[in-house]
Amino acid sequence: MVVAIWADLAQGFPLDGDDDIVAIEAANGIDDMGDEDKIDLSHLGPEAYGAPSKESGDALSTWDESSPMNPEEMGEYAEGDILIPQLGRNGMRDESMRWPSGIIPYVIEGRYSQEQHDTIKKAIADYHRLTCLRFVPYNGQKDYISIQSGNTGCWSSVGRIGGRQEVNLQNPGCVSKKGTVLHELLHAVGFMHEQSRHERDDYVDVRYDNIKAGSENNFKKADAKRTNDFGVPYDYNSVMHYSEYAFSKNGRKTIEPKVGGVTLGQREGLSRGDVKKVNAMYNCHKEEPEGGWMGAVWQGFFG
Ligand SMILES: [Zn+2]
Predict the structure, then answer these.
(1) Is 290 one of the catalytic residues?
(2) 229 Cβ contact list (under 8 Å, min separation 6)
């Protein structure tokens, strides 16, 4: 039965029902998460809550692949690309949730070329290959992700907020690099930016003199007591790390590593640390790929 389900998933067929979900839970190596499935959103502050903005889309329309910054660093949202819908008139969420058993129903509703569609699918395939997360075709589930292509930039909520939640991947802009798709999906999975870690000042220097006026908030640090690094050290290679020119007002670096020989802001693939953190958050016992050229390439480039 499990084999049949994997075949269904691989071919994009909808799942048949609860029996399938139970079988996936057993097959993907995820333990019951119990009460540990909350994600603290408090360090994001009030600017994380609001509505999609056309200004962010207009800013992104000037981006191309020769830009020194990443497209998700061009939005006017919290930290550039975090947007959580407001609850009621003034309500803010102070937490969101993990996805039960790591199963994330999704539907691609934006308009993309075949190549861009393939880029999104490759990002999802990376999660399936390296983690226990399973993006399954939306089939009426209560909580799910809708991937949209509105002219409002690249953005996502953090974690599962309940009901339909959008991940916006503006076209063109957010679907040029697989890493941008991986990045926005990793927010939806439940992760923040790497450089907002509480101990980041031990690893990078933030150059406030070079940051655009009004964007200083994007470089806030999280509270040590409220975040969980899952035992993974600070990771310059994370797909969740800003580039060195994020929110620069003058073409100079806004964030610099304290050590030589590292590049910030790669958007080629999940780093080894990214994979470890996802699998730790979701109690996944999947082993790191070792043999074969796939494992070698992944570890060689992003190790
Ligand atoms: Zn981001």
Answers:
(1) no
(2) 197, 277
